Amino acid sequence: MPESCTCGATLVENARFCHRCGRPAFEEVEVRDVVDAVDLSATPPVAPPAIAPAALPVGFGNPIALRVAFLMSLAIVVMQLIPGLNVLFVVWWLAAGWCAVLLYRRLTGLALSVKAGARLGSITGVLTFVSMAVIFSFSLLFTGKELFQQLVKQNPQMSEIVNDPPSLIAALLLVLVLIFGMVVGTCAAGGALGAKFAGRGSAS
């Protein structure tokens, strides 16, 4: 702002006009000119909203599902090792599938469909069978001879199978296949029931 007007009068501080001649002390800049001077094309583009990643389907490729199934398989193996409680093995297999669905929902916030619950239960059953097979193998390794002797005493016809290695291996494989089907099928049924009654909704 100039200190004096063109007429020679000294301007008052912050005065918009000269008190002597009325001439404007400074030229006002119109707001429209300022807006026109702004380069609107230089405005940065707005980033698109982030899309949340899709949930993994229930399967062996899902780390959360594997973790849940592993924890449930450990729990069911422990229950089967407790005398008196091991006679309720079918109940524990059903409960393992059911609880796996509940734990998965708690960790992920997703309600599984019946099909997905059955898949999670079957994964639990597979891991449970593997744990049982490992324990059974160690038991045969240390007490297998005494076990076979007791079987022969209880059923003399078992001596033919025990003394014939190919028949013995075939019988053991048949038993393992039957146990595998029972464990996986029961755990899958428990997972399906858990998904149907414990939570409504669907997830792949």
Helical content (DSSP H or I, runs of 4+): 55-70%
Task: Pick out the low-confidence regions.
Answer: none
Morphology call: rod-shaped
Number of strands: 0
Mean pLDDT: 76
Strand content: under 5%
Please state the CA-atom Rg, rounded to the nearest Å: 40 Å
> End-to-end distance, in Å?
72 Å
Biggest sheet layout: none
- Give the H and E element order: HHHHHH
Number of domains: 2
Number of helices: 6
Structural class of the secondary structure composition?
mainly alpha
Architecture overview:
By secondary structure, the chain is mostly helical. The protein folds into two domains: 32 residues; 136 residues, no CATH class. The chain is 62% helix and 0% strand. It contains six helices and no strands. Helix 2 runs antiparallel to helix 3 and helix 4 packs antiparallel against helix 6. The chain is rod-shaped, with a radius of gyration of 40 Å.
Identify the notable features of this structure and list them briefly.
mainly alpha, 62% helix
List the helices and strands and how they pair.
Layout: H1 31-37, H2 63-81, H3 89-108, H4 114-154, H5 158-162, H6 165-198
Helix pairs in contact: 2-3, 2-4, 3-4, 3-6, 4-6
Task: Summarize the structure in short.
The chain is mainly α and 204 residues long. It is built from six helices and no strands.
